[in-house]
Amino acid sequence: MRLRNVKNAYEILTSSFYFVENPKDYKNNLSSLFLTEQPIHLEIGCGKGQFLIGMAKKYPEINFIGIEKYDSVLVRAIQKCKEEDLHNLKFFCMDAKEILDVFHHDIETLYLNFSDPWPKNRHHERRLTSTTFLTLYESIFCDTPNVIQKTDNPILFASSLEDFSKNGYILSNVSLNLHETEIENVNTEYEDKFVKLGQPIYYLKAIQKK
Ligand SMILES: C[S@@+](CC[C@H](N)C(=O)[O-])C[C@H]1O[C@@H](n2cnc3c(N)ncnc32)[C@H](O)[C@@H]1O
C-alpha cells in the first residue's frame, strides 16, 4: 500500500500518544508501553490500522502493536485513532526484517492480514510467510508460535500452507471462505474492499508443534 507523501508525516506521528518513535528502546520491556500488563498481539503490515483499532476496542484485555514500513500509511492509522481512547494500542514504523531488534519472547499472537503477495516465484522469500520470515518470527513469541493469516490471494495462501507445514506448524483452522464461517473476525481495510467485490477471503491459524 503506497500513499502519496503526507506533508508533516513525522510531526503527526511523533505528536501522537499511539506512536512509538524508537521501538528498539523497548526491547525486552514492551509491556511498559501500556497501562496494563497483559498479553501482546502483533500485526505486521497494519496499513491504515482499521483491524487493530477494531481489535483493541473489542478486546481490552489484550495489548496490540501494529508495525508498518511506510510512515505515510501509518499517519492514516494515527489519524483514525484521534477520536479513540485506547490504552492498549501502539504503532511502530519499521520493516518486518528488523523484527528481532525490537521483539523478543513477548508476542502471544501474530496477525498477517493481506500481506503483499509477491506472486512471482523468484520473490518467494519476500513473502511474510516464507521460511526466511517464519524463522525470524520464532523468537518473538512468549510461548508456542501462533500465527493468524487472512488473504485474498490464492498464490500467497497456497505457499503459506506449504511453508507453515515445512516449518513444523499445525494448521488448526483453515477456511477458503472466512465470511461463510463462524470464526470471530474484525475486517481490515483490504478485506472490506474484497468482500464488496464478492471475493472469498482465505484464512488460516497456524500453531507450531512443540
Ligand atoms: C496490502 S496492505 C494490507 C494492509 C492491512 N493489513 C489490511 O489488511 O488492510 C500491506 C501492508 O503491509 C505493509 N508492509 C509490507 N511489507 C512490510 C514489511 N516488510 N514490514 C512492515 N510492513 C510491511 C505495506 O506497506 C502495506 O501497508
Describe this structure in words.
Strands 1-4-3-2-5-6-8-7 form an eight-stranded mixed beta sheet, with helices on both faces. β2, α2 (50-58) and β3 form a beta-alpha-beta unit. It is 26% helix and 21% strand. It is built from six helices and eight strands. It has helices at 9-14, 50-58, 71-81, 131-137, 154-166, 189-196, and strands at residues 19-20, 40-44, 63-68, 89-93, 107-113, 146-151, 169-175, 202-208. It is of the alpha/beta class and 210 residues long. The protein has one domain: Rossmann fold (3-Layer(aba) Sandwich), CATH 3.40.50.150. The structure holds S-adenosylmethionine. S-adenosylmethionine binds next to β3 and α6.
Quick overview:
With 210 residues, this protein is α/β, with parallel strands linked by helices. It is 26% helix and 21% strand.
Secondary-structure topology with pairs:
Blueprint: H1 9-14, E1 19-20, E2 40-44, H2 50-58, E3 63-68, H3 71-81, E4 89-93, E5 107-113, H4 131-137, E6 146-151, H5 154-166, E7 169-175, H6 189-196, E8 202-208
Parallel strand pairs: 1-4, 2-3, 2-5, 3-4, 5-6
Antiparallel strand pairs: 6-8, 7-8
The protein binds S-adenosylmethionine.
S-adenosylmethionine binds near residues 45, 70, 114, 189 and 190.
Q: Keywords for this structure?
A:
210 residues; alpha/beta; 8-stranded mixed beta sheet; globular; binds S-adenosylmethionine; 26% helix; Rossmann fold
Regions with pLDDT < 50 over 5+ consecutive residues?
none
* Structure class: alpha/beta
CATH architecture: 3-Layer(aba) Sandwich
- CATH-wise, what's the superfamily? Vaccinia Virus protein VP39
Give the biggest beta sheet. 8 strands, mixed
CATH topology: Rossmann fold
Mean pLDDT: 96
Tally of strands:
8
- Give the overall form: globular
How many domain modules?
Answer: 1
| Ligand list | S-adenosylmethionine
CATH class: Alpha Beta
What Rg is obtained from the alpha carbons, in whole angstroms?
A: 16 Å
Share of residues in strands: 15-25%
What count of helical segments does DSSP give? 6
